[in-house]
Amino acid sequence: MAPKIFIDGEHGTTGLQIVSRLQGRDDIELMSMPAEQRRDQEVRKSFLRDADIAILCLPDDAAREAVTLAADAGTRFIDASTAHRTHPDWAFGFAELSSEQGARIASAQFVSNPGCYSTGAIALLAPLVNAGLLPTDYPVTINAVSGYTGGGKQLIAQIEDGSRDDAISATYFSYALTLAHKHVPEIVTRAGLSRLPIFTPAVGRFAQGMLVNVPLHLDLLGKDASIATLHAVLADHYSGGSVVEVVSLAATSALARLDPEEMKGTDQMKLYVCGNEEAGQVNLVASLDNLGKGASGAAVQNLGLMIGG
Ligand SMILES: NC(=O)C1=CN([C@@H]2O[C@H](COP(=O)(O)OP(=O)(O)OC[C@H]3O[C@@H](n4cnc5c(N)ncnc54)[C@H](OP(=O)(O)O)[C@@H]3O)[C@@H](O)[C@H]2O)C=CC1
Ligand SMILES: CC(=O)N[C@@H](CCC(=O)OP(=O)(O)O)C(=O)O
């Protein structure tokens, strides 16, 4: 029998994207709840308990509540929120993290999707920490720009509807000015850092896509660190997979700029190693769609692993 899949929050930004990816598949039974009942706890509880796998596309508190409503019924969860990303009982839903992570996700009852920025940052940092090239206490900085759909319905309305009292007219803005963004804990935990990175995110007036930049000083890295060795470690780590591509140094050196919308509409991620060897400086860059590999695409990838598809 095809596994029953319920998307709690199916009418939100991430939920709608997952529905569009799953509609028409005959290897699953997609359950659906009328939009007007989306906040009715009893109806949600019944769907959550009846599902084989529930994909939570909800704010953190509602995601935690959904788990309490149905975990004892054996329902398996993929949580797109921040609620469980550093929880030791939850498998971290970044299948490319290590050679074992896909199997961990496949057998888990509880899978937590990474955040969109975290996906890029962890993808760049974790292999370098594991290879001993990036000291765990390196003073990492992460500078990123996201499409505005990353902020869900609320930010989308503020950007797109100029008549609102809280409309945002800026074409680009920095935020998380107190440096306490919700993705920092999962980046620390999952990349294996021992020192808090400084994370400065920004939003641009485009719907989907993001660039996550991690600039590094080569002389503060392991003794073999060079643009070529950093690239080789990343290329080796992601070789054989079809989701994360490490762009060749030759192709990267021919580029004049990187476009945050490059990966819009895809569920893949590209990693670039840019820099200036003479100056001893390198910039690692991840390019992804915040709603693709950064959210819904990753949820569908994890679902595939969990149902053995
Ligand atoms: N957008 C993105 O790029 C990413 C989002 N995420 C995460 O995914 C989750 C969903 O985000 P997103 O889709 O952007 O958010 P949206 O605001 O677009 O959608 C959230 C949905 O959840 C519903 N909802 C809110 N509170 C409750 C509740 N208490 N009970 C039941 N339903 C509720 C909302 O209904 P209503 O319309 O009534 O408010 C809405 O349909 C969040 O945790 C977010 O941080 C993760 C990665 C990237
Ligand atoms: C542009 C924007 O506002 N982005 C969101 C993060 C989007 C996301 O990844 O949400 P999760 O943490 O639930 O995964 C933010 O910075 O809060």
Summary of the model, kept short:
It holds the Pfam family Semialdhyde_dh. The protein is an alpha/beta fold and 309 residues long. It contains ten helices and 13 strands.
Written account of the structure:
The protein is an alpha/beta fold and 309 residues long. It folds into 2 domains: 4-114 and 295-306, 3-Layer(aba) Sandwich (Rossmann fold), CATH 3.40.50; 116-292, Dihydrodipicolinate Reductase, domain 2, CATH 3.30.360.10. It contains 10 helices and 13 strands. The chain has helices at residues 13-22, 41-50, 60-70, 101-107, 116-130, 152-160, 184-191, 227-238, 249-253, 292-306, and strands at 4-8, 29-31, 53-56, 76-79, 91-92, 110-112, 141-147, 172-174, 198-204, 210-217, 244-246, 269-276, 281-288. Strands 8-9-7-10-13-12-11 form a 7-stranded mixed β-sheet. Strand 3 (53-56), helix 3 (60-70) and strand 4 form a beta-alpha-beta unit. Helix 4 (101-107) crosses helix 10 and helix 5 runs parallel beside helix 7 (184-191). It is globular and about 60 Å long. The two termini are 14 Å apart. The structure holds NADPH dihydro-nicotinamide-adenine-dinucleotide phosphate and N-acetyl-L-glutamyl 5-phosphate (X2W). Residues 81-82, 115-116, 146, 150-151, 155, 182-183, 201, 203 line the site of N-acetyl-L-glutamyl 5-phosphate. NADPH dihydro-nicotinamide-adenine-dinucleotide phosphate (NDP) binds next to helix 1, helix 3, helix 6 and helix 10.
